[in-house]
């Protein structure tokens, strides 16, 4: 059956649930919905601006000269209730679809200047959004309900060709490709791109995952007519496999491709549909579809992989089907179509590619030079966290504020705590971190050995994330090897252990007084070692925009900016008098803040690495700091305010001026501060003390609201004096933290489920806390 509309197909997408519904967008701006069983067009929308009066002058002028626009992309939302359409003139339309024969106007967004080249749906923080890109070299994220712009990503130097949102565990990100062959990755944080790759052959490229999300592929064509279909090694950010069968030819459009059933790849090239087995580079089989295809046809599988839509050179779309697809079409073709009925997804075996038969249905329209990208690429080096954060519950009632008192946790029954199982020798924990996914905890002991605990998904732990209610496994690869740092000939007690984790949890960079090692987190194998002492590394930090660049704090008080890929020190920063104990990047301000054992902070520009400011900490009166004291620094989520941790105080500094805004001094009875960190939402600060206690401060006021005493999580009579040396915050649970202890133990601590949080914030008078009262920092009053 042919329904010729006289304009070429630019994009197609099958409904994710009712898989015999096909959405088609054409070069004349038409959006059509076809029901393949009855071979009927059940909806049609022509290009029309809904509210011209609110459009920009540029768009109005463009429409005055030529009131037409081509469709660049059509796409269903994941649940099939929305349709997104990107046009070649500024505009994105969202239609709602709830069965029947109607597409109803939902939202009109003037998204870009010029052509909107692509769109896709995503769920950052469980909120449905639309991601768009355009000729103006910009990517934007819009609320799919209100149309409000959420994020703008700038950095491409050419028009953005495609966007592909994706997620790995709890890390949400977007990949974008440009017409100059550049691939970039973005997190939902307005902090710039985390990855900058070159597509094979510098081609205009689209990317797609296998259906189960475990394998990544891309396909594109460059200006010389060379096409590339490849599989990527995600952890390495490199091409793993290049598929054969796409010869160089005259430029007749970008080769389009799709994947199905976690097994097959298909691409439209040389007036053919070509198929590959994902595990083999050699071309498997081709079909010419009765000689009706253009040079670069548009193709699209339905979700089950039993139907394949193909554009033809006579303004048509043909539907290829394997036997399961033919049966599905025959089942419905003689029935009256009810679009509100959800077609159940049948479970079928992966079909042999050769069983895709000849055309069953032909629907009018034809492919143009460009069809949309399909999926996304994951970044090995994305350098930040996309955090799914539970909201804090505030209780500001007047009655409770009058009777407020510090929450004291003294008994094991007052909180949830878990000491992680450990079959390795107990050695004090020097460094501790959650993986970015929240599925594991990594510790570095003072004997240079790393320990990794992983949680499993099960009925008691549906997310598989770290929790005190389920015991994890001390994980090792099948080889049984340990991740062990190089140890110098100096006394191990003099070494300063340090490590940093790549943002996709694939690699850890680590040192324990000897050479710096790079480990593969899956195999525990040492990938490389570099920078033998002296001087030894004492702190490590990845550059937020390029994880090939590392800031390395050294024992001799210098900071080396090192490029791992070319094995070269780019520059050396000097400003401290004693060893470096902390490093923190702010991408928003383009600065690096360093802290040293000299209790000094230094501010460096990451553009030219010039020193911009320095300040010594204000040591509280009556307190004496040791000659070598670790000073830690950590940026707030706003990337402007800086948490400074010293054994005598917790302080908040404003960057770039390095002005101390607030300072909190603990009561002397608690002993020195051993470590502190922001919670994942930057609303709380967890502070550990030498007496074994942990304080929870409200970050905005530096006021203590909860104290967890060691009797709540340690055995009644420990065999030795035990206290936490390091505290780590869960990446997506604001009220969970972990402690690394002097006896080698690692504890996870959470509030009771009935409480849900650590105490309540104390009241303030006229918006400000009272002045400091000497003698009780448990009384939570900050110095200003």
Automatic annotation (TrEMBL):
Region (Disordered): 752-784
Pfam families, sorted: WD40
UniProt repeat feature WD, residue ranges: 109-152, 573-614
Entries under InterPro entries matching the protein: Topless_fam, WD40/YVTN_repeat-like_dom_sf, WD40_repeat_dom_sf, WD40_rpt
Compositionally biased residues, Polar residues: 761-784
Domain of life: Eukaryota
GO biological process: primary shoot apical meristem specification; regulation of DNA-templated transcription
SMART domains in UniProt: WD40
Keywords per UniProt: Repeat, Repressor, WD repeat
PANTHER family: TOPLESS-RELATED PROTEIN 1-RELATED, TOPLESS-RELATED PROTEIN 4-LIKE ISOFORM X1
Protein name listed in UniProt: Topless-related protein 4-like
The species this protein was found in: Carya illinoinensis (Pecan)
Lineage: Eukaryota, Viridiplantae, Streptophyta, Embryophyta, Tracheophyta
């Amino acid at each position: 059956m042919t329904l010729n509309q006289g304009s070429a197909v630019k994009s197609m997408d099958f409904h994710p649930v009712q898989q015999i519904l096909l959405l088609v967008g054409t070069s004349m701006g038409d959006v059509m919905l076809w029901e393949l069983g009855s071979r009927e067009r059940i909806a049609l929308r022509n290009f029309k601006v809904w509210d011209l009066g609110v459009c920009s002058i540029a768009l109005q002028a463009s429409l005055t000269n030529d009131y037409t626009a081509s469709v660049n992309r059509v796409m269903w939302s994941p649940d099939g209730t929305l349709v997104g359409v990107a046009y070649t003139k500024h505009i994105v339309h969202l239609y709602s679809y709830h069965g029947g024969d109607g597409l109803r106007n939902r939202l009109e967004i003037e998204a870009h200047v010029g052509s909107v080249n692509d769109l896709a749906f995503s769920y950052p923080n469980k909120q449905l959004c639309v991601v768009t890109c355009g000729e103006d070299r910009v990517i934007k994220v819009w609320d799919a309900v209100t149309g409000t712009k959420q994020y703008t990503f700038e950095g491409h130097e050419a028009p953005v060709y495609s966007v592909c949102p994706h997620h790995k565990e709890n890390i949400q990100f977007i990949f974008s490709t440009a017409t100059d062959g550049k691939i970039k990755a973005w997190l939902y944080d307005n902090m710039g791109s985390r990855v900058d790759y070159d597509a094979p052959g510098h081609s205009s490229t689209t990317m797609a995952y296998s259906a189960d999300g475990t394998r990544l592929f891309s396909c594109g064509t460059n200006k010389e007519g060379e096409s590339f279909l490849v599989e990527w090694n995600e952890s390495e950010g490199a091409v793993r496999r290049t598929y054969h069968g796409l010869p160089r030819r005259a430029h007749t459009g970008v080769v389009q491709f799709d994947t199905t059933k976690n097994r097959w790849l298909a691409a439209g090239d040389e007036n053919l549909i070509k198929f590959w087995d994902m595990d083999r580079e050699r071309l498997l089989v081709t079909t010419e579809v009765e000689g009706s295809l253009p040079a670069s046809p548009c193709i699209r599988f339905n979700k089950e992989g039993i139907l394949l839509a193909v554009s033809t050179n006579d303004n048509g779309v043909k539907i290829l089907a394997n036997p399961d697809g033919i049966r599905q079409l025959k089942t419905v073709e003689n029935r009256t179509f009810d679009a509100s009925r959800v077609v159940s997804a049948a479970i079928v075996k992966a079909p042999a590619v050769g069983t895709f038969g000849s055309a069953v249905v032909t629907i009018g329209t034809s492919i143009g030079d460009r069809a949309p990208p399909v999926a996304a690429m994951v970044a090995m080096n994305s350098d930040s966290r996309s955090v799914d954060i539970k909201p804090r519950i505030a209780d500001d009632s007047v009655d409770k504020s009058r009777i407020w008192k510090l929450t004291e946790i003294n008994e094991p029954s007052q909180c949830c705590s878990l000491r992680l199982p450990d079959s390795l020798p107990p050695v004090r924990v020097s460094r501790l971190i959650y993986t970015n996914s929240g599925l594991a905890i990594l510790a570095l002991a003072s004997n240079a050995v790393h320990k990794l605990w992983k949680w499993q998904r099960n009925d008691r732990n549906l997310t598989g994330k770290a929790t005190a209610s389920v015991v994890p496994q001390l994980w090792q690869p099948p080889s049984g090897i340990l991740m062990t740092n190089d140890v110098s000939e100096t006394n191990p007690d003099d070494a300063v252990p340090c490590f940093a984790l790549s943002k996709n949890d694939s690699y850890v960079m680590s040192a324990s007084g000897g050479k710096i090692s790079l480990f593969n987190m899956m195999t525990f194998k040492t990938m490389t070692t570099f920078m033998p002492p002296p001087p030894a590394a004492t702190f490590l930090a990845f550059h937020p925009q390029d994880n090939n660049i590392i800031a390395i704090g050294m024992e001799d008080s210098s900071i080396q900016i090192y490029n791992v890929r070319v094995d070269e020190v780019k520059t050396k920063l000097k400003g401290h008098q004693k060893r470096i104990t902390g490093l923190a990047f702010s991408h928003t301000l383009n600065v690096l803040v360093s802290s040293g054992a000299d209790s000094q902070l230094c501010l460096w520009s990451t553009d030219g690495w010039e020193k911009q400011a320095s300040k010594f900490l204000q040591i509280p009166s009556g307190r004496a700091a040791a000659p070598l004291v670790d000073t830690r620094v950590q940026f707030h989520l706003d990337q402007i305010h800086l948490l400074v941790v010293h054994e005598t105080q917790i302080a908040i500094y404003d960057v770039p001026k390095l002005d101390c805004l607030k300072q909190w001094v603990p009561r002397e009875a608690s002993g020195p501060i051993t470590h502190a960190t922001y919670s994942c939402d930057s609303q709380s600060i967890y502070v550990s003390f030498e007496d074994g206690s942990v304080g929870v401060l409200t970050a905005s006021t530096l006021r203590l609201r909860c104290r967890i005493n060691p009797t709540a999580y340690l055995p009644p009579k420990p065999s030795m004096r035990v206290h936490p040396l390091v505290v780590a915050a869960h990446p997506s649970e604001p009220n969970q933290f972990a402690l690394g202890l002097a006896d080698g133990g690692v504890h996870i601590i959470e509030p009771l489920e009935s409480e849900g949080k650590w105490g309540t914030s104390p009241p303030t008078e006229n918006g400000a806390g009272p002045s400091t009262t000497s003698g009780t920092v448990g009384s939570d009053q900050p110095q200003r």
